[in-house]
Design brief:
two-stranded antiparallel ribbon, mainly alpha, two-stranded antiparallel sheet, 484 residues, 2% strand
Length: 484
């Protein structure tokens, strides 16, 4: 009897030793694949180069690079700046043991495979909302054998660089390496994970977006000034009575080519404070919405609420610049000595409230714009993901989705923007009613009158999107920002 037990224990110990030897051989082989220069040590650049060589170049930027840097810091025990094979083997072996425990926790039916429902269930417990299509796409990204499930080996190999055994971080790492996104609505800021915030991705994104917006606005500024003239004067002014081209000729005749860019300086200057305030307000509002569960992801309707409120806060803070921009766009040559002169005369003649003329229609316009823009963008993007769940949406498709959703948002909110501009341009010192202006326009011009100036607004969409994208691509490449 004792001999049988001894033989059985010896056999089990032998199999364990074989498993350990097989693991060490597998991990040693992986180390040598990452050690491109063959010096027996690996650094961050070698890991990035190896991933790129294997066709995972996109995974070596931005958020993924944050995980790679953390992997290096946790593996590099002696803080030499690179990792020896002993450090690598020790870290990965312990990491895989912890990943095994996470895998078994998610595998509710203990069949050795993770299916889509188990992934959704585990994510929901963490407060991370996943649609069926998103979960299927995530599984297909990891499922190498096409079994529609994830084996332990596929789980282990995909997550070996995540350097975390925390399930919430594992799901976020998995999700972030699955989808490519370019942002949704102008009034709903981009979401950043805690890892992205720590890695500094947020400020690089804001800088890249700010520069792209500045160049885009400057390029399309003439169309913006034409829009303002049509909104304020309609067809009753000599400047606008002959349509867009007549408006262009009248502007050039009055102030020269440079006059087409009146008001653009203020329009560019307000990008930085508006973006920064919106971002900070959005992050704070997300924290309030999440309440006692700070690790959960917010749902799309919660994003809409937080984004709309953040947009309202940022607009309130910079709204005086909006009024100044409109007055500068409408000014005649020599009317004011400088921007300071304009501000002083506005205040002297109309009082402090002049800087908030048109504030209410502007505030009301945020809700339909943000809601429609975000909803249509998400609908179009998810329609593609339902058809191609295993593929990242192409950048050009995402740009097209963004253009369509933004255009629809503009159509819905444009009448409020028209009334806002008319109130901003008015020199009257008496309080003018938003409702009265609506009634006057409808009585005089009908429903069509509420969309005066929308044509030049549409004409600038395509060049604005194209220029913004091209500039953003160049700047984000220099700063290390992935399209988000």
């Amino acid at each position: 009897m004792s001999e049988d037990v001894s033989e059985r224990n010896h056999g089990e110990n032998g199999r364990e030793k074989e498993d350990v030897d097989a693991d060490m051989e597998r991990l040693s082989s992986l180390f040598h694949k990452l050690d491109l220069d063959g010096d027996g040590r690996i650094d961050l650049n070698e890991i990035v180069a190896a991933l790129t060589k294997r066709g995972h170049g996109e995974g070596a930027t931005d958020l993924a690079k944050f995980y790679l840097q953390r992997f290096m810091s946790r593996t590099d025990v002696d803080k030499s700046g690179d990792v020896s094979i002993d450090e690598f083997l020790d870290h990965i072996r312990n990491h895989e043991l912890r990943l095994k425990q996470v895998f078994q926790d998610v595998d509710r039916n203990n069949d050795g495979q993770l299916d889509v429902h188990e992934v959704i269930h585990a994510s929901q417990k963490l407060g991370i909302h996943l649609t069926l299509q998103e979960a299927e796409a995530m599984i297909k990204r990891m499922d190498e054998d096409g079994s529609s499930g994830i084996s332990w080996e596929e789980w282990r190999d995909f997550l070996f660089l995540s350097s975390s055994d925390d399930l919430h971080e594992v799901v976020n790492y998995w999700k972030q390496t699955t989808f490519l996104d370019i942002g949704e609505a102008a009034s709903v800021p981009v979401d950043f994970t805690p890892q992205e915030l720590k890695s500094g991705l947020w400020w690089r994104h804001l800088v890249a977006g700010g520069l792209a917006g500045a160049i885009s606005r400057t390029t399309t500024a003439p169309l913006d000034r034409i829009k303002v003239f049509l909104q304020v004067h309609g067809k009753n002014s000599p400047v606008t009575s002959n349509g867009i081209m007549g408006c262009v000729r009248a502007m050039i005749k009055e102030g020269g080519i440079a006059s087409m860019w009146r008001g653009n300086g203020i329009n560019v200057i307000k990008i930085a404070p508006e973006s920064a305030i919106k971002f900070m307000a959005y992050e704070q509002l997300k924290g309030v919405i999440k309440g006692r569960n700070p690790n959960r992801e917010i749902r799309i309707e919660e994003r809409f609420v937080a984004g709309s409120l953040a947009g309202a806060i940022s607009q309130t803070a910079i709204y005086p610049l909006e009024v100044i921009k409109t007055r500068l766009a409408l000014r005649k040559t020599g009317e004011f000595k400088s921007v300071v002169d304009l501000i002083f005369k506005m205040f002297k003649k109309e009082g402090g409230k002049v800087f908030f003329k048109g504030y209410l229609p502007n505030l009301f316009g945020i809700l339909p714009y943000a809601g429609i823009d975000l909803t249509i963008y998400e609908t179009l993007k998810r329609a593609y993901l339902r058809r191609e769940p295993s593929k990242d949406p192409p950048v050009l498709l995402l740009l097209a989705c963004g253009t369509i959703s933004s255009t629809c948002g503009q159509i819905a909110s444009y009448p409020l923007a028209l009334v806002r501009t008319q109130l901003q341009a008015s020199y009257s010192t008496t309080n003018q009613s938003m409702t009265l202006i609506f009634k006057t326009i409808l009585r005089r011009d009908g429903v069509v009158g509420l969309y005066r100036g929308i044509l030049p607004n549409f004409l600038k969409v395509a060049p604005a999107v194209s220029i913004s994208y091209l500039v953003y691509e160049r700047v984000r490449g220099a700063l290390g920002v992935k399209m988000t």
